[in-house]
Design brief:
Elements (H helix, E strand, L loop, with lengths): L6 H21 L4 E3 L11 E3 L8 E4 L2 E4 H15 L3 H9 L2 H13 L6 E5 L5 H24 L5 H7 L14 E6 L2 H14 L5 E5 L12 E7 L8 H11 E12 L5 H13 L1 H9 L2 H13 L3 H10 L3 E8 L4 E7 L22
Helix pairs in contact: 3-10, 4-5, 10-11
């Protein structure tokens, strides 16, 4: 695969990182506070706020809200819909979301031994597909070896006799870590995993996409499916994705996007605003949450704008694939190397989670 070196994106990334780190070192020394204990997230994470943070606003659907309020409101949305989330996905998309997620896995092309971080992974759909795929590959290889049943070569015989004090090193097993800010969504995912018998090689971590509780250069693949549009600061989430990926690691995002065809766009808008909230009320008993989800799709950047944001975070060879006429898009990019070591100053971070 050929990688396109984007010098302009590299320069933009360096400048933005330096400006951000400088402003953090100045502002965060003024005030740093633990997330309110009354917040339903109950995360052991620190957030730093500058003096004017309370005056900053963002969107919650079509509504304008203070930045500090959005995370809590998004949490309540998914807390409300967690039990019916998978059923509603099937109803809203007529089952097509399963094909979209299968396509994400096709783009990923996972290999045995990979470590996946599935951010906003909620009920585990992407991680389950990942583990099923890599384990089927491992089983296929094992069957081929067993079927061959040939006389071992001299190399195989020699390696079977380990030197004194040496032990045979087993190949690293594939692992998936589902990271989500919402505990209720993770509980539903864990219940599904137990029913499916997917317990080994799978971890569940409560964490914020803007402040991931992992060390640098840990993962081969970072995925986020239908979650990044709910993040308050998308740029910070992308920078965190870049930080935790290994050099050579890949960022893959599946998200609703912009439909180019005018006729399809009209039909899509009519279905979204007139049908989906009604389905939310009938199936999940929650009109407002699904009204927000529809509105949040319209506030998310278009394909080209989001591609530029990913490049600004430091990723290379960024591209996207439209699915279903642009109803959703898969964006992907590679971390070739660390462009600039993070300079976080006195900014506290969530405690890093050890990877099994």
């Amino acid at each position: 695969m050929k990688f396109r070196f984007n010098m302009a994106a590299s320069i933009r990334f360096l400048v933005r990182r330096m400006v951000r780190d400088y402003s953090r070192n100045i502002n965060c020394s003024v005030s740093c506070q633990i997330v309110r204990s009354s917040c339903p997230l109950n995360l052991s994470a620190c957030r730093c706020f500058s003096d004017n943070a309370e005056n900053k606003t963002t969107h919650f659907g079509f509504e304008t809200v203070p930045e500090g309020e959005k995370t809590e409101r998004v949490y309540k949305v998914f807390e409300s819909v967690a039990q019916k989330y998978d059923l509603m996905n099937d109803a809203m998309s007529l089952g097509v979301h399963r094909l979209w997620k299968d396509m994400l896995l096709h783009v990923m092309n996972p290999q045995p031994g990979m470590r996946l971080l599935d951010v906003a992974g909620g009920t585990g759909d992407i991680s389950f597909r990942f583990l099923d795929y890599v384990r089927s590959q491992e089983e296929r290889v094992a069957r081929r070896v067993a079927q061959a049943n040939q006389t071992p070569s001299w190399q195989e015989i020699s390696t079977s006799y380990a030197a004194p004090g040496q032990e045979e090193v087993e190949p690293r097993r594939s692992r998936a870590i589902v990271c989500d800010i919402n505990k209720e969504m993770l509980k539903v995912g864990q219940q599904k995993a137990d029913r499916m018998g997917l317990t080994s090689g799978l971890s569940w971590v409560v964490g914020n996409a803007e402040e991931l509780p992992f060390d640098d250069d840990q993962f081969d693949v970072y995925t986020v499916a239908f979650g990044i549009r709910n993040v308050t600061h998308i740029d910070l989430a992308l920078q965190e994705a870049f930080r935790v990926l290994k050099p050579g690691g890949r960022f893959i995002c599946l998200e609703f996007s912009k439909v180019a065809n005018p006729l399809l766009s009209q039909l899509y808008n009519a279905y979204s605003f007139q049908v989906i909230p009604v389905l939310g009320e009938v199936i999940a008993g929650d009109w407002k949450s699904y009204q927000y989800l529809v509105e949040s799709i319209r506030k998310f950047p278009d394909q080209e704008t989001f591609k530029g944001m990913i490049e600004d975070a430091g990723f290379f060879s960024v591209r996207y694939h439209n699915l279903t006429g642009g109803v959703v898009a898969i964006h992907s990019g590679f971390k070739l190397f660390r462009l600039l070591p993070p300079q976080r100053g006195d900014v506290p971070r969530p405690q890093s989670q050890p990877l099994p």
